[in-house]
Structures are given as C-alpha cells and as structure tokens.
Amino acid sequence: MNKKLTTDADTAARHARFGKLPERIRFEDMTEETEAAPSSGGNASYSDENSWKYYSCLALDLGL
C-alpha cells in the first residue's frame, strides 16, 4: 500500500511540473525582418566582425 501512496505522490509532483504545455508562440514573434545588403561586388570588403560567417571546417561539417 505504501507503493501506491508513493506512486500517487510522484504522479502529482510530475503533473504539477509538466502537466500543461507551454503557450504557443506565434510565427510573427519568431521571425525578424531586416534589410539585406549586397555581399559581393565593388563594395565588398573584409570585416573582422563578419569573418565568422565565412568560416568553413570539414570536421564541423561532418559532425566530427
């Protein structure tokens, strides 16, 4: 009978913590629109801050 009480207490604790789903997030709240500048052509220049965008590593691409 002690097992039944423990199971009920565990079930109640689990339901209190995970009993409901989080509120839905609207698609409009998940996206952000920004103006894109052309990345190539005569005005393209090297920038230390943006250099991470062009980093490529085969090991990372393969998930190693």
Can you put this structure into words, describing what you see?
The protein is mainly α and 64 residues long. The protein is 39% helix and 0% strand. The chain contains three helices and no strands. The chain has helices spanning 2-18, 27-30, 58-61. The longest helix is centred in the first third of the chain and has 17 residues, at 2-18. It is elongated. The model has no long low-confidence stretch (mean pLDDT 75).
Average pLDDT for all residues:
75
Structural class: mainly alpha
Number of helices: 3
- Element string (H = helix, E = strand): HHH
Largest pleated sheet: none
Radius of gyration: 26 Å
Task: Give the overall silhouette.
Answer: elongated
Through-space gap between termini: 51 Å
Helix percent band: 25-40%
Q: What percentage of amino acids are in beta strands?
A: under 5%
The overall strand count is 0
Q: Which ranges are low-confidence, i.e. pLDDT below 50, for 5 or more consecutive residues? A: none
